[in-house]
Write a structure and sequence with these properties.
The mean pLDDT is 97. Helix content is 33%, strand content 20%. The protein is of the alpha/beta class. Helix 3 packs across helix 6 (142-151). An eleven-stranded mixed beta sheet has the order 5-4-6-8-1-9-16-15-10-11-13, sandwiched between helices. Strands 2-3-7 form a three-stranded mixed beta sheet, with no helix packed on it. Strands 12-14 form a two-stranded antiparallel sheet. It has one domain (4-406): Thiolase/Chalcone synthase (Peroxisomal Thiolase, Chain A, domain 1, 3-Layer(aba) Sandwich).
Amino acid sequence: MRRVVVTGMAGITALGNDWETLANHFANNHSGIRRMHEWDRFEELNTRLGGPIDDFQVPSHWTRKQLRSMGRVARLAVAAAERALADAGLLDEPSIRDGRMGVACGSSAGSTDEIKAFGNMLLNSRADGLNANSYVRMMPHTTAANISIFFGLTGRLIPTSSACTSGSQGVGYAYEAIKFGRLPMMLAGGAEELCPTEAMVFDALYATSLKNDTPQLSPRPYDSARDGLVVGEGGGMLVLEELEHALARGARIHAEIVGFGSNADGQHITRPEQVTMGRAMQLALDDAGLAADAIGYVNGHGTATEQGDIAETQATHELFGARMPISSQKSFLGHTLGACGALESWFSIEMMNRDRYVHTLNLDNVDPRCAELDYLRGGMRVMSNEYVMNNNFAFGGVNTSLIFRRWG
């Protein structure tokens, strides 16, 4: 069994693209949520809240040819991947292109502009807007494929299109590929572009926030006054390496991945299950060879939906007890769907390394139906931990749990 370390990390978010900027926003309770006036034309869409990246621009050195196959979701993923490779000191390293580096990445869907163009064909019998690249911008594995092609990566490609666990499964499966000796390096993560269709998915389930006139007050994970989630967008990528490979090239190591657990509820397509959520966490602990009391902090999924918050916290309490610190950065950025597992893994590592943990914004009164835990609220908390856990749960009953160990 190989040991797996993180040597590069990066993300694109509504509140910034580097940890210093993000941490400043977190510390000052700045929310990335705003009213989406662009959605006012959708009369049957009840929510008007989103977490958009309003200032995203593709890098000036990207060529027109490179951009042809990329919709917004792929551009967010590739931009995060480029930053992560640069952070790892591998961006111009020939060894990543000789089969030694692979990609594990996903999103809930491809770019929806292309879906609209194909819908126009079916509804109106017209092919306006369709071209040779329409499908590759729409396909579920557009993020992974475009990363591989953009950087010339010829190792294994693992698409992880599993809604809210796309990013965390990307990290987990990449970890396993290295752990079991299939190759020494992987780019891993996920991305999502903001689209009103994704808001409508949750709107139809009565699961979106309707605090349209007070966007700074939503979402409210774990809070008794929560009224649903807010959809956001972003991209997050990690560079994973086999430990000896990283040491041989003198790489800076951010953290070690020591555990990954993933399973399925096998019960309901959208209703989370406490028992299997807890089992996924236990699988990660078993993989790491750790007892529950080794974990010092849980980065919760915390979507601000009633069933999700309650089931998740009960599962966490059953395994760790009331002493476990927990928080959710979705309170600042919204639910970034396919990106959240990767972004929150990045955040977890940064918090662990800096001993400052981000609280849950808008958590004023914990819902009494949520289990007793040490909810981080009111401001950043100083803690020192050797191990932290990041949990994500998705439609379809997909559960993931990742454990990171402090390095050095």
